[in-house]
Design the sequence.
C-alpha cells in the first residue's frame, strides 16, 4: 500500500483545487517560508482523522477553511481527498484503490467519505489503526514532533511505540470494552437499586395478594354453600308452613267448644267459694287470737327454762373463779420467793466476774508491751545483721578493686606511647588535604548557587502541580460521588414514579376509574384527594392518618358524572369508590377562630392550613379537614383537646388521633411505601434534590476541566525547569565527585585525629583518676574493718536481751490462759441466772393480771344470780292466767272449722272439673300460639333468606343453585367457619393480586436482566484480560526489536557511540514510560536535554527509522526535520533516506539542498498571489535523463 494522490481544495492557504501525485521513492516539497508547504502535511494529518486542531496549528474548525485574501472572498468549505493504492489489501476493504475524503463547512457541519460513501470520523480512524497512519502514528513527522519525542515525559513517548506495535486497535477495543463495562456496572447498580426498592414492596404485597387470593377462595366457597343451603332451607320452610297451617285450623275448632263449657262451670264455683270465704274469715280471726295466746305462753316457758339454765351456768362459773383465785395466790407467793433467791445469787456472781475481767485486762496489757519490746529488738537485730553482711561484702569488693587498679595502670601507660605516634601522622595528612579542598570549594560554590535557584523554582512548580492534582482528584471524586447519588436518586424516582403511574396502593374501584380513559366521565375526574393537596413537609403522616381512606376519594365536577362512574363500577363489578362532586360539596365555616391564641400557644394549627391546593377545591378540603387540628405530639394534643372542650379531632405528627369526645388511637404505625401523600411528597423531594445535584455536577465538571487545563500548563513549565536543573546538575557532577573524594579523605583523617586526641585525653584522665581511686579505696577498707567489729558486739548484746523477753512472754501467756478460762465459766453462769430472773418477773406480772381479771368476773356473776331469781317469780304468775284463756278459745274454733270444711269440699270438686277444662283450653291456646309463632318465624326466615340472598348475590342468585351438589355435613357451621376466616383476613386489598403479579413480573424481568448483566460483566472482564495479554505480548516484542534497531542505527549515524531504550517500570510494560539514553562518540552518557540540536535531531531520526525498520509505514511525511542538521549530518540523513526509500514512500518538506538532491520528484509551493498557495512539480529523474 502507498500514497497515490492528494487532492486539496479550500484547505488553509490552498484556495484552488490542487492535485499532488505521489510515486514510490522520495518526493520533496520545497518553497520559501510562509508559502504553505506545511499545510500539505497538515492536510494529510487532517484527512486521516486528526481531531485535535492544535496538532494542525489551529484552534477552531474555521481555521482550516480558506479565510480569503485581499482579492478573494473566503470559501465556505474545505475538502481534502487522500487516494491510496490498496492492491496488497493492507486496508480491510475490497478495493484496490481507496479514496478517503473529509469536508468541513463554516456552519460547523462535517462530512466523511470512503470511496464516496458517507462514514463516521470513527470509521476513518479505525481504518488506519495499526497501519502506521493513525492520528498517533509516526507517518507525519515535523520538527515539533522531533522535539516532542525527545522532550516529553517517558510516559508520553509510548504512543509512537504502541502504533508501531500494532496495538492501537486493541487499545481502542479495550477502551470501548471498559466503557461498556462501566455502563454495565452502572446498569447493574441501577437494577440492584430498583430490585432493592421493588423487593422491599414485593414481600408485603405478596402477603396481601396471598390474603386476597385466600379471601376470594373463601368468598366463592361461602357463596356456593350459602346459596345452595339457603335454597334448600327455603324449600323445607315452605313444606313446614303448609303442615302447620292445617294443624292450626283443627286446634282452633276444639278450643271454641271447650271455652263454652268452662264458662257455665265457672259461675257455680264462684257461688260456693263466696260462702266458704266468709267462714274462712271467721276461722282465721279466732285462730289468730288462739295462736297469739299460745305464742305468749311458749315465750314465757322458754324464758323460765332460760333463767334456770343461766342460773346453773353462773353458779358453776362462780365456784370456778373462787378456786382459780386461791390457786393463783399460792403460785404468786412461790414465784416471789424464787425471785428473791435468784437476785441474791446473781449479785455474788457479778462481783466475781468483774474481778476476773480486770485481772485478764492487766495481763493482756503486759503481754502486748512485751511483744512490742521483742519486735523492736528483732528489728534492731535484723538491721544490724544486714549492716554487718553489707560491710563484709563491701570490704571484699574494696580489696578486689585495689588489685585490679594496679594492673590497669601499667596497660594505660603502654597505650599512651602508641597513640602519640599515630597523632603526629594524622596532623600532617590533614594539612595536605585542606589545601586541595580550599581550591575546589570556590569553584563548587558558584555551581551550587545556580543549582539551588533551579531546584527552588522546580519545587515551587511541583508543589503547584501537586496542589492542582489534589484539587483535581478531590473534584473528580466529588463529581463521581454526585453521579452515584444521581443514579441512586434516578432509581428511586423511577420506582416511585412507576408505582404512581400504575396506581399501586389504590383501591380497586378508584384504580379502575382512573384507568377508564375512554369513558365520558373520566375527563370530569379531577383526581383523588392525594392528588389535589400538597402537604407541608413533615405533615404527610398526620394528614394520611387524618384523612385515612378519604385520601382516595375522587373529586369530580358534577354529581351526574359521579352517577355515571358508579354505574360503570356496577356493570363491570370493579368495586366501590367515594366521590366528592364539586357542585354538591359545601365548605364549612371556620370553627377555630375563637381558639387562635390557644393554637398558637400549643404550636398547633388547623389541618386546612397544613396543605396547599387550588382555590377551586377549597370546599372539598374544608369538608374533609374543617374539624381537624394538627399538634406536634400526643401530650400537646391531649392538652389541646381539653382546651377546645373535646369538640375537634386532634392528630399528632406521629399519627396519634384524639377523637371528639376524648377517645385516643395510637401505637406503632407501619410506614409503608404505599402511603400516597408520603409517596407523592417523596417524588417531589427527590426531583428537587436531583435538580440541585445536576447543578452541582455541572459546576463540578466545569471546575474539573479548568483544573485539567491549568495542570497541563504547569506540567509543561515544570518539565522545562526540570531539564534546566538537570543541565546544572550534570555540570556539578564532575566537581562534586572530586570534592566528595577529598571530603571523605579529609573527614576520615579528622575523625582519626579526633579519636586519637580523645583517646590520649581519656588515658591521662584515667591514670590520674586511678591513683586517687586506689588511695580512697585503701582508706575505706581500714574504716570498714573497724565498723565490722563494733557491729558484731552490738549483735551479741541484742540477742541476749531477746532471749530474756521471750521467757517473760511465755509465762505471761500461761497466766492469761488460766484467768480467761475461769472468766468464761463465771460469765456463762451469770447469763443463765439473768435469764431465769427475767422469766420469773414476766410470770409474776402475767399472774397478777389474771388474778385481778377473775376477781372482777366473780363479783359480776354474783350480782347476775340475784337479778335472775326476781324475774323468774314474776313470769310464773303471768303463765297461769294465760292458760285459762286459751282453753275457752280452742272450743269455739273447732265448731267454725267443721262448717268451713264442708263448703270447701264442695267447691274443690267443682274446681277440679273446671281446672281440667281450663287446662285443656290452655294447652290448646299454647299449641295455637306455638303454631302461630312457628308459622311467623318460618315466614320471617323465608323472607330474610330470600332478601339476604338478593342483597348479597343479586337478583339472579337462583342461577347459582346446583340441585345435585352435595352440601357439607354441617352447612351452618361451615358458613360460620368461612365467615370467621374471612373476617380474620380483613381488611383485604383485592387489588393486591393484580399489583403483586405486575410487580412480580417486573422483579423477575429485572432479576433476569441483572443475571444477564453479571454474565456480561464477567465476559467483558475476560475480554479485557485477553486484550491486555495480547497488547503486552505485542508491545514487549516490538519494543525489543525497536531497541535493537535503534542501537544499531545510532552507532551508524554517529559513527560510534552508544544508545539504548529502557522501560521506566519493566514490571508494568503496559503503563511504563520509555527512557532514551544517548552517548555520542567521545562524550559521557548524559541526559537528552544536554545534547546539541543536531545531536537531538539525529537521535530522534535514529529512533524513527528504527521504528520504520520494525514496522514500515505505507508512506512517511517528514516536515523540515533536517532543519537543525549540519552538512555532515544531512549527508548521513539522506543516505538513510536512500536506503529506506527502496521499501518506503517518503514525502519530505525541506529547505536543505542535500535533501532535495536525493528526491525523485520535486514539488514547489509558491505564493504568487498573497495568501494563496500554488503548486509546481518536477520529476528530477526524467530531467536528469
Sequence:
Amino acid at each position: 500500500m502507498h500514497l497515490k494522490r492528494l487532492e486539496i481544495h479550500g484547505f488553509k492557504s490552498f484556495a484552488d483545487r490542487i492535485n499532488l501525485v505521489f510515486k514510490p521513492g522520495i518526493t520533496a516539497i520545497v518553497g520559501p517560508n510562509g508559502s504553505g508547504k506545511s499545510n500539505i502535511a497538515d492536510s494529510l494529518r487532517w484527512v486521516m482523522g486528526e481531531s485535535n486542531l492544535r496538532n494542525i496549528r489551529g484552534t477552531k474548525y474555521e481555521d482550516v477553511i480558506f479565510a480569503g485574501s485581499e482579492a478573494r472572498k473566503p470559501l465556505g468549505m474545505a475538502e481534502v481527498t487522500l487516494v491510496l493504492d490498496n492492491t496488497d489489501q493492507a486496508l480491510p476493504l475490497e478495493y484496490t484503490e481507496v479514496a478517503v475524503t473529509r469536508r468541513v463547512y463554516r456552519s460547523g457541519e462535517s462530512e466523511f467519505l470512503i470511496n464516496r460513501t458517507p462514514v463516521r470520523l470513527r470509521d476513518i480512524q479505525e481504518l488506519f489503526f495499526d497501519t502506521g497512519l493513525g492520528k498517533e502514528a509516526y507517518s507525519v513527522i515535523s520538527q515539533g514532533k522531533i522535539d516532542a519525542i525527545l522532550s516529553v515525559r517517558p510516559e508520553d513517548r509510548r504512543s509512537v511505540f504502541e502504533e508501531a506495535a500494532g496495538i492501537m486497535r486493541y487499545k481502542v477495543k479495550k477502551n470501548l470494552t471498559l466503557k461498556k463495562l462501566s455502563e454495565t456496572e452502572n446498569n447493574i447498580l441501577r437494577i440492584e437499586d430498583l430490585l432493592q426498592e421493588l423487593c422491599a414492596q414485593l414481600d408485603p404485597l405478596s402477603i396481601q395478594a396471598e390474603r386476597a387470593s385466600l379471601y376470594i377462595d373463601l368468598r366463592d366457597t361461602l357463596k356456593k354453600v350459602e346459596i345452595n343451603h339457603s335454597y334448600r332451607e327455603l324449600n323445607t320452610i315452605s313444606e313446614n308452613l303448609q303442615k302447620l297451617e292445617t294443624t292450626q285450623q283443627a286446634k282452633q275448632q276444639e278450643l271454641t267448644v271447650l271455652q263454652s263449657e268452662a264458662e257455665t262451670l265457672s259461675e257455680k264455683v264462684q257461688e260456693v267459694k263466696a260462702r266458704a270465704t266468709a267462714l274462712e274469715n271467721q276461722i282465721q280471726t279466732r285462730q289468730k287470737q288462739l295462736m297469739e295466746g299460745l305464742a305468749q305462753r311458749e315465750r314465757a316457758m322458754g324464758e323460765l327454762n332460760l333463767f334456770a339454765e343461766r342460773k346453773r351456768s353462773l353458779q358453776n362459773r362462780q365456784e370456778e373463779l373462787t378456786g382459780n383465785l386461791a390457786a393463783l395466790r399460792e403460785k404468786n407467793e412461790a414465784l416471789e420467793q424464787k425471785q428473791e433467791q435468784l437476785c441474791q445469787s446473781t449479785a455474788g456472781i457479778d462481783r466475781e466476774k468483774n474481778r476476773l475481767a480486770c485481772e485478764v485486762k492487766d495481763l493482756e496489757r503486759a503481754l502486748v508491751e512485751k511483744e512490742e519490746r521483742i519486735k523492736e529488738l528483732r528489728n534492731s537485730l535484723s538491721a544490724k545483721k544486714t549492716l554487718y553482711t553489707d560491710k563484709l561484702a563491701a570490704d571484699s569488693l574494696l580489696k578486689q578493686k585495689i588489685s585490679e587498679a594496679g594492673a590497669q595502670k601499667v596497660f594505660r601507660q603502654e597505650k599512651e606511647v602508641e597513640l602519640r605516634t599515630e597523632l603526629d601522622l594524622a596532623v600532617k595528612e590533614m594539612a595536605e588535604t585542606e589545601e586541595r579542598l580550599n581550591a575546589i570549594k570556590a569553584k563548587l560554590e558558584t555551581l551550587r548557587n545556580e543549582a539551588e535557584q533551579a531546584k527552588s523554582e522546580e519545587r515551587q512548580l511541583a508543589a503547584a502541580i501537586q496542589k492542582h492534582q489534589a484539587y483535581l482528584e478531590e473534584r473528580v471524586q466529588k463529581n463521581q460521588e454526585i453521579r452515584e447519588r444521581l443514579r441512586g436518586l434516578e432509581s428511586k424516582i423511577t420506582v416511585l414514579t412507576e408505582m404512581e403511574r400504575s396506581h399501586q396502593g389504590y383501591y380497586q374501584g378508584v384504580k379502575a376509574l382512573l384507568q377508564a380513559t375512554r369513558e365520558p366521565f373520566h375527563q370530569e375526574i379531577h383526581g383523588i384527594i392525594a392528588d389535589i393537596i400538597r402537604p407541608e413537609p413533615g405533615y404527610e403522616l398526620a394528614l394520611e392518618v387524618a384523612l385515612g381512606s378519604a385520601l382516595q376519594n375522587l373529586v369530580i365536577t358534577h354529581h351526574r358524572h359521579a352517577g355515571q362512574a358508579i354505574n360503570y363500577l356496577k356493570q363491570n363489578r370493579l368495586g366501590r369508590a367515594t366521590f366528592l362532586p364539586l357542585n354538591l360539596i359545601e365548605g364549612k365555616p371556620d370553627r377555630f377562630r375563637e381558639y387562635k391564641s390557644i393554637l398558637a400557644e400549643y404550636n398547633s394549627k388547623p389541618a386546612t392550613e397544613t396543605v396547599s391546593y387550588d382555590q377551586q377545591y377549597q370546599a372539598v378540603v374544608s369538608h374533609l379537614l374543617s374539624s381537624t387540628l394538627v399538634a406536634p405530639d400526643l401530650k400537646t394534643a391531649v392538652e389541646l383537646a381539653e382546651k377546645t372542650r373535646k369538640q375537634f379531632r386532634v392528630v399528632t405528627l406521629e399519627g396519634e388521633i384524639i377523637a371528639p369526645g376524648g377517645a385516643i388511637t395510637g401505637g406503632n404505625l407501619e410506614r409503608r411505601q404505599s402511603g400516597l401523600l408520603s409517596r407523592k411528597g417523596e417524588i417531589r423531594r427527590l426531583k428537587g434534590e436531583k435538580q440541585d445535584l445536576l447543578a452541582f455536577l455541572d459546576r463540578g465538571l466545569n471546575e474539573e476541566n479548568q483544573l485539567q487545563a491549568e495542570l497541563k500548563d504547569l506540567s509543561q513549565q515544570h518539565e522545562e525547569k526540570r531539564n534546566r536543573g538537570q543541565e546544572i546538575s550534570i555540570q556539578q557532577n564532575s566537581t562534586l565527585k572530586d570534592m566528595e573524594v577529598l571530603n571523605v579523605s579529609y573527614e576520615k583523617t579528622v575523625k582519626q585525629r579526633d579519636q586519637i586526641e580523645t583517646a590520649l585525653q581519656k588515658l591521662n584522665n584515667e591514670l590520674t583518676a586511678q591513683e586517687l581511686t586506689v588511695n580512697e579505696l585503701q582508706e575505706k577498707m581500714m574504716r570498714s574493718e573497724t565498723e565490722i567489729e563494733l557491729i558484731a558486739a552490738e549483735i551479741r548484746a541484742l540477742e541476749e536481751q531477746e532471749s530474756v523477753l521471750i521467757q517473760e512472754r511465755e509465762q505471761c501467756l500461761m497466766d492469761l490462759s488460766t484467768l480467761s478460762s475461769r472468766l468464761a465459766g463465771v460469765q456463762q453462769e451469770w447469763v443463765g441466772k439473768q435469764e431465769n430472773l427475767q422469766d420469773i418477773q414476766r410470770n409474776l406480772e402475767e399472774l397478777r393480771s389474771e388474778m385481778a381479771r377473775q376477781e372482777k368476773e366473780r363479783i359480776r356473776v354474783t350480782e347476775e344470780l340475784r337479778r335472775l331469781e326476781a324475774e323468774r317469780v314474776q313470769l310464773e304468775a303471768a303463765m297461769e292466767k294465760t292458760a285459762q284463756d286459751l282453753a275457752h278459745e280452742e272450743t269455739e274454733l273447732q265448731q267454725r272449722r267443721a262448717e268451713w270444711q264442708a263448703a270447701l269440699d264442695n267447691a274443690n270438686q267443682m274446681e277440679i272439673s273446671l281446672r281440667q277444662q281450663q287446662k285443656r283450653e290452655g294447652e290448646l291456646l299454647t299449641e295455637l300460639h306455638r303454631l302461630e309463632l312457628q308459622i311467623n318465624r318460618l315466614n320471617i326466615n323465608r323472607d330474610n333468606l330470600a332478601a339476604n340472598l338478593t342483597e348479597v348475590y343479586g337478583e339472579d342468585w337462583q342461577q347459582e343453585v346446583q340441585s345435585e351438589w352435595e352440601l357439607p355435613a354441617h352447612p351452618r357451621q361451615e358458613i360460620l367457619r368461612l365467615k370467621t376466616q374471612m373476617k380474620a383476613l380483613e381488611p383485604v386489598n383485592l387489588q393486591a393480586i393484580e399489583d403483586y403479579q405486575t410487580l412480580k413480573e417486573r422483579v423477575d424481568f429485572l432479576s433476569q436482566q441483572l443475571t444477564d448483566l453479571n454474565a456480561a460483566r464477567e465476559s467483558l472482564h475476560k475480554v479485557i484480560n485477553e486484550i491486555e495479554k495480547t497488547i503486552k505480548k505485542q508491545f514487549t516484542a516490538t519494543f525489543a526489536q525497536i531497541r535493537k534497531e535503534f542501537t544499531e542505527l545510532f552507532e551508524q549515524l554517529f559513527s560510534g557511540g552508544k544508545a539504548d531504550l529502557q522501560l521506566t517500570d519493566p514490571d508494568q510494560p503496559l503503563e511504563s514510560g520509555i527512557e532514551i539514553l544517548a552517548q555520542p562518540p567521545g562524550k559521557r552518557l548524559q541526559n537528552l536535554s544536554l545534547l546539541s540540536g543536531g545531536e537531538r535531531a539525529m537521535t530522534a531520526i535514529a529512533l524513527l527509522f528504527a521504528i520504520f525498520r520494525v514496522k514500515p509505514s505505507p508512506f512517511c511525511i517528514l516536515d523540515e526535520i533536517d532543519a537543525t542538521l549540519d552538512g555532515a549530518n544531512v549527508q548521513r540523513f539522506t543516505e538513510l533516506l536512500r536506503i529506506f526509500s527502496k521499501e518506503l514512500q517518503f514525502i519530505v518538506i525541506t529547505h536543505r539542498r542535500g535533501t532535495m538532491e536525493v528526491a525523485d520528484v520535486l514539488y514547489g509551493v509558491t505564493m504568487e498571489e498573497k495568501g494563496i498557495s500554488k503548486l509546481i512539480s518536477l520529476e528530477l529523474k526524467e530531467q536528469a535523463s
Summary: The chain has 19 helices and 24 strands. Residues 168-501 form the longest helix (334 residues).
